[in-house]
Amino acid sequence: MMEPNKDLKFAVLIDADNVPYSHVKEMFQEIAKYGTPTFKRIYADWTKPTVSGWKKVLLENAIQPIQQYSYTTGKNASDSALIIDAMDILYTGKVDGFCIVSSDSDFTRLATRLRESGMKVIGIGEKKTLTPFITACDKFIYLEILKPKEIIPNADENSPTKEKKQNPLNLIDPELIKLVTKSIEDLEEEDGWTFLGELGNLLLKKKPDFDPRNYGFTKMLPLFKSMDIFEIDERESGKANVKHIYIRLKKTSSKK
Fold first, then answer.
1. Arithmetic mean of pLDDT over the chain
2. Which of 76, 80, 107, 169 has a 20 to 30 Å separation from 230 between CA atoms?
3. Cα separation of 156 and 176, whole Å?
4. Given a cut of 70, is residue 2 above it in pLDDT?
5. Looking at per-residue confidence, does 74 or 56 come out higher?
């Protein structure tokens, strides 16, 4: 998976016209896992009533609103303002990456250009976001999975249902199983074992929107255990409470 690095500096640029304002707090908590947001800007024509909901959350999240009037019907002037600002910030050299918050695939070229310049690019948008923008990012996170967790009372502490997410966005289907299986084959050692951390990194390179939370699990390990076709080996690392986890296909499972 994309490794957390609190020292990375991110510019967070939000397209207010193409994402809802709900769960903004959870969105910034998610971004904080990967670095520190040093620029926080949001783009819209603030004279429009359609973005009025955003105004309530700007102050409490220290987001700078950028006014961009819509000069022509049917054209999104905010897109151009966001892109221009992104390039200006890029050339200042003051950030290590960008977080583009939008469900609009018009930012596909921007994400590609930023990565060409060595920037880390995280995309955040709704499930309806089109594939080109998703694949242009290093990692893409669906807003729907950032909803607060629902705690199940009286559940066993080790039960996978202790924390119950909202309904999963995706079902565990043959396509996911094929993706994981092929990725294990790409990385496996002679004995068939693959280090879980390396597997997560490869899955993210192949599928930037891969996230166990899309399937209702908070971590990769419970997701893979639920498929019941993999063996799991938790090895001591020499450090207290730290284990190295390896995974391979069960001997009885045929490789696809």
1. 87
2. 169
3. 29
4. no
5. 56
